[in-house]
Design brief:
This protein is mainly α and 286 residues long. It is 43% helix and 4% strand. The protein has a two-stranded antiparallel sheet. A two-stranded antiparallel ribbon has the order 3-4. The radius of gyration is 19 Å and the shape is globular. It starts with a helix and ends with a helix.
């Protein structure tokens, strides 16, 4: 999930992972209730060495690797169960969630709010004093997010992938690639979206773009062009990926496994394509 992945990257960027623990669910959605009449599938916890999972209709075999981190504090088997323990039985049972171990309550489950909390609220504990919300360009970044990046790129790929009419898909894909053209030009003139300083909005854009070629061009039919065809967008993704804290948050095997195995209406047999997108770790290949 790009939203949860962005929060994890911010946790690392701020140097807060020594005081705020985190868990990692299995990338394949699993059944969240033992009730045979309950058809909900969502985020479930597994540990390394557990029996491989299938997709929601029983196809495939998706390993439980050593990147999985169960929620050892609550011991819940699923994110849904965590919500239930906090009194929410309606959902949606989404990630990320910021959970307070003192009150045993979910504090927040909106990724944009959690990003801000991690940036501002824990400075006394953070190993890094970096501010990813510079005041001098705050409104510029918010406008860019509200008018372009969130509706047409971050959410735009989902509008393409889950469109249920040709007209809805055509509109979404046109708006997506128009937005990418604008961003390609902008990032040809400056290093980051706000100039020379890396910010929260760069992180949000990166988390969509890093998934673009390995997942979205196939799965969500966003195939007018690849990330690899955008010189400046590809440079931007490689630049952000070179940050150790961001690189640490990216698990391409988990990313691909989640998308291609969790929605059988889009990929019945859970077949995961081979392509991982353009090489991102450029220094490692030189």
């Amino acid at each position: 999930c790009p939203w949860a992945d962005g929060v994890l990257a911010m946790l690392f960027l701020k140097g807060l992972d020594h005081v705020i623990s985190y868990s990692v669910v299995h990338p394949t959605w699993g059944k969240t209730s033992s009730d045979p009449e309950d058809k909900h599938f969502g985020w479930v916890y597994k540990k390394s060495g557990d029996k491989p999972m299938t997709n929601p209709i029983g196809h495939g075999s998706f390993t439980c690797d050593d990147a999985l981190i169960p929620d050892e504090f609550t011991g819940v088997p699923s994110v849904r169960e965590l919500y239930h323990r906090c009194g929410d039985f309606d959902g949606p049972f989404t990630t990320p969630t910021l959970y307070d171990k003192q009150t045993n309550q979910i504090v927040c489950n909106e990724s944009t709010d959690i990003l801000r909390m991690l940036n501002f609220e824990f400075d006394e504990l953070a190993k890094s004093n970096s501010n990813f919300y510079p005041e001098e360009i705050a409104q510029e970044l918010q406008d860019l997010n509200d008018n372009l990046i969130y509706p047409k790129v971050n959410n735009g790929v989902y509008r393409c992938g889950f469109a249920t009419s040709q007209e809805a898909y055509n509109l979404a894909v046109e708006e997506l690639f128009d937005a990418l053209d604008i961003l390609e030009q902008k990032l040809g003139e400056q290093r980051y979206l706000g100039g020379e300083k890396f910010t929260w909005l760069d992180l949000r854009l990166f988390m969509t773009l890093v998934r673009f070629d390995p997942v979205y061009i196939t799965y969500f039919k966003t195939n007018k062009k690849r990330l690899a065809d955008f010189t400046n967008l590809l440079r931007f993704v490689r630049d952000v990926y070179s940050m150790e804290a961001v690189k640490k948050s990216i698990n391409m095997e988990h990313i691909k496994t989640h998308y291609f195995t969790s929605h059988p209406q889009l990929n019945t047999f859970g077949i995961i394509p081979a392509y991982n997108g353009p090489e991102l770790d450029v220094e490692a290949t030189n």
